[in-house]
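// run 5 | inverse folding | seed 20
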């Protein structure tokens, strides 16, 4: 009887995968831990540099330059402007197979400026961007891991290629998708990623597919007091449409999410608005469900246009699918996470975390001090364009605690922690897991084969199809 039949499921179970890949658990790659410990100050400095100059998606010129400079000094060959995005790059070291890629993000979020290490809301510059998702930690840890793994590759004369993809604009969902469209991952065998979190775990099967659209209405301007009957209000249409979407929320799956922001509601209260625009995001556990919701949204927009005698226009902003899981790579991550262990937070870290939780009205649980065992539904329900990468090459993702339990990303609390010792401790663990897993994959062909075998099963052998229109160009909404 086959191993899959013994497990009673269609895919290789986690326990079996761990057993199949057990030979890779030997001591190779542990030198990466030592290097990352010795160079820890270097990476904290890099992370702080990026934190100090937060930049929004497709505008991360200084952030990308900091990471590129470090990589080039370590002998990586860097190609800039990948995917027609000025702040996207790929750095490469080594040659031949296997080709292991690490993913780095470095974009910030609007309006989340916050003083580092401050448990109360206090902006550095009010209204300015901040690293409320911890991407300064994310990008730095991935670069540190790539360099640590490459030093080990050189020292032991190992075969293979290490890639570091600098992927911009994750917060607006487009960076990796445009890079894929232009062939960035064609040579890659596997991809390894991580994200700051409030827990320590291998994450899988929880991220949501997402599609974002601009919904515009075009009406007719008129004087709102002297001759309102001559006008047709685009703002009325947007309000009516938004109400329809609010009612629609009662009739979508529990796993779905719908949210929006108004981009344009007119120019003055005494002018009938001839243009109004909202940005709407649709999420669910599968791309098929999101597509069904998009069809309903489009009908609602057309209906609002008819009701107000305006014209509706729905334009795709971006789309990314739910990640394709890969338990063969998950097993590698879990083994290294268990070996390295979670961040070692001290009393100062815990007091700061509890003070922040108290400020936010959360239970004062402090920081996560354990690595979660593997489970099929570990992780959160945020979306990411890593979903597109996972549909092109086998991918695994890791979460490491860089903020207090119960706090969320896209919040000033994460900004405060992203240039704080507790954030740096999480970053250091992530770098070690990524670096050691990279060496595991380079030295054990069974890992690459198992990852590819499962990838074929999960994707049913279907070729990748980009969600982008053929004429799409990367454009920031800011």
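// decoded
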């Amino acid at each position: 009887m086959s191993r899959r039949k013994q497990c009673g499921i269609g895919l290789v179970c986690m326990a079996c995968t761990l057993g199949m890949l057990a030979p890779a658990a030997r001591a190779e790659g542990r030198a990466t831990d030592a290097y990352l410990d010795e160079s820890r100050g270097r990476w904290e400095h890099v992370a702080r540099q990026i934190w100090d100059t937060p930049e929004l998606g497709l505008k991360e010129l200084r952030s990308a330059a900091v990471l590129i400079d470090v990589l080039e000094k370590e002998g990586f060959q860097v190609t800039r402007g990948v995917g027609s995005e000025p702040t996207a790059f790929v750095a490469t070291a080594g040659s031949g197979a296997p080709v292991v890629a690490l993913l780095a993000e470095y974009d910030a979020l609007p309006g989340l400026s916050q003083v580092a290490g401050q448990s109360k809301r206090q902006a550095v510059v009010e209204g300015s961007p901040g690293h409320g998702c911890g991407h300064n930690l994310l990008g730095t840890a991935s670069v540190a891991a790539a360099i640590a793994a490459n030093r080990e590759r050189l020292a032991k004369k190992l075969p293979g290629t290490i890639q570091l993809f600098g992927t911009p604009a994750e917060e607006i969902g487009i960076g990796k998708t445009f890079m894929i469209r232009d062939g960035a991952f064609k040579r890659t065998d596997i991809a390894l990623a991580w994200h700051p979190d409030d827990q320590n775990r291998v994450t899988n099967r929880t991220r949501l597919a997402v599609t974002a659209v601009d919904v515009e209405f075009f009406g007719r301007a008129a004087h709102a007091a002297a001759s309102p009957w001559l006008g047709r209000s685009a703002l009325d249409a947007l309000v009516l449409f938004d109400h329809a979407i609010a009612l629609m929320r009662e009739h979508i799956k529990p796993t779905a999410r719908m949210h929006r922001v108004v981009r344009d509601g007119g120019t003055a209260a005494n002018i009938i608005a001839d243009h109004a625009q909202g940005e709407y995001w649709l999420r669910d556990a599968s791309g098929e469900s999101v597509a069904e919701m998009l069809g309903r949204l489009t009908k609602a927009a057309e209906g609002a246009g008819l009701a107000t005698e305006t014209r509706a226009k729905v334009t795709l902003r971006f789309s990314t699918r739910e990640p394709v899981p890969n338990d063969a790579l998950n097993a590698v991550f879990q083994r290294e996470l268990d070996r390295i262990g979670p961040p070692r937070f001290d009393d100062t870290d815990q007091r700061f975390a509890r003070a922040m939780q108290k400020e936010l009205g959360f239970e004062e649980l402090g920081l996560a001090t354990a690595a979660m065992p593997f489970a099929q539904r570990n992780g959160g329900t945020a979306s990411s364009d890593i979903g597109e990468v996972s549909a092109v090459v086998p991918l695994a993702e890791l979460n490491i605690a860089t903020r207090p339990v119960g706090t969320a990303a896209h919040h000033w609390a994460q900004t405060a922690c992203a240039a704080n010792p507790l954030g740096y401790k999480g970053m250091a663990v992530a770098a070690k897991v990524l670096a050691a897993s990279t060496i595991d994959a380079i030295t054990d062909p069974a890992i690459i084969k198992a990852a590819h075998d499962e990838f074929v099963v999960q994707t049913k052998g279907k070729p990748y199809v980009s969600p982008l229109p053929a004429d799409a160009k990367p454009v920031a909404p800011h």
